[in-house]
Design goal:
Length: 247
C-alpha cells in the first residue's frame, strides 16, 4: 500500500456540512470528487488571462522558468511528461518518462534535474537540446520529364523516434515558385509511392524527431525510383560515304 505522503492522490475526498432550518443539527455528506481538468494560464500586465495548455487526464505538479532559453518548463502526472512553452506560446512535449509523476524540477548550470516517482527516478534534462531536425537534399536532375515511383529508405529508428519524408518537383534547376508544393508526408518503413507531379527535377526532405536526447533516428540511405518519358531520337550527325568504302 502506498503512503499518502509519497504519492499525490488523484481523487480528492471532501466533507460537506449542510444546515437545514427545519431539521436540527448537521448532516455530514462524504463525497468523492474526481480529478478535474488541469490548465496553464498566462496573465498579462492588464490582468487578462489566456489559457496556454489544458488536459483532462494530466495534472501539473512542477513549474520552472528557464531564463536562459526563455521557456516555461512544467512536469505532469500521471503520465510522467515534461512540457515546454516558448516565447511564441507554443507548447511542446519534450520528455516522456516511465514514472508516473514529475513532481520536482531543479535547475543547475545548463541542466535541469527532475525527480519523478512510481517508480522513483532522478534524471537530467537539457533545455537547449533539440528534439527535432530537418535535412533537405540537393536538387536532383533526371535529364528529362520523369514519373516518380517509390521512395524508400534505410534507417535505424529507436523507440520514441520517427522519420518523415516529403518530396517536391519542378522543371527548373533551382527550386522556386514554379515548383510543386511539398507532398503529404511519407512514414511507412517499407516505402511509399511518391506523390509529386511529373517533372525533370526532384528534391526530398526528411524530418527527424525523438522524445529522448539519448537516442535519435539514424538515416543511412534514401532511394527514389523514377521512369523517364520516351523521347524522340535526335540525329546529331549524318555522313554519306563513297561507293565501296566501308566505315
Amino acid at each position: 500500500k502506498r503512503k499518502q505522503e509519497e504519492t499525490p492522490v488523484s481523487l480528492i475526498r471532501k466533507i460537506a456540512v449542510t444546515v437545514s432550518p427545519s431539521t436540527p443539527g448537521t448532516k455530514e455528506v462524504l463525497s468523492v470528487v474526481r480529478k478535474q481538468p488541469s490548465a496553464l494560464y498566462k496573465i498579462d500586465k492588464q490582468g487578462i488571462a489566456k489559457r496556454l495548455w489544458h488536459s483532462s487526464d494530466e495534472l501539473i505538479y512542477s513549474l520552472l522558468w528557464n531564463e536562459r532559453e526563455g521557456k516555461l518548463i512544467f512536469g505532469t502526472g500521471d503520465k510522467g511528461r515534461i512540457y515546454s512553452v516558448d516565447k511564441d506560446e507554443k507548447v511542446s512535449l519534450v520528455v516522456q518518462k516511465k514514472s508516473e509523476l514529475v513532481y520536482l524540477l531543479l535547475p543547475y548550470d545548463s541542466k535541469i534535474y527532475f525527480l519523478s516517482n512510481n517508480p522513483s527516478d532522478l534524471s537530467i534534462f537539457y533545455p537547449d537540446q533539440r528534439f527535432s531536425g530537418e535535412y533537405m537534399s540537393r536538387v536532383m536532375d533526371t535529364r528529362t520529364i520523369s514519373s516518380w515511383g517509390r521512395i524508400e529508405w534505410e534507417a535505424t529508428i529507436p523507440s520514441g523516434s520517427t522519420l518523415q519524408f516529403q518530396t517536391r518537383s519542378g522543371n527548373s534547376s533551382n527550386a522556386n515558385k514554379t515548383w510543386s508544393n511539398w507532398s503529404p508526408p511519407y512514414q511507412k518503413k517499407q516505402g511509399e509511392q511518391a506523390l509529386s507531379p511529373r517533372a525533370r527535377y526532384v528534391q526530398f526532405k526528411v524530418m527527424f524527431k525523438t522524445q529522448s536526447g539519448k537516442r535519435s533516428p539514424l538515416l543511412q540511405k534514401v532511394s527514389l525510383f523514377y521512369l523517364q518519358a520516351n523521347v524522340a531520337p535526335v540525329i546529331k550527325k549524318m555522313e554519306v560515304l563513297p561507293p565501296n568504302e566501308i566505315y
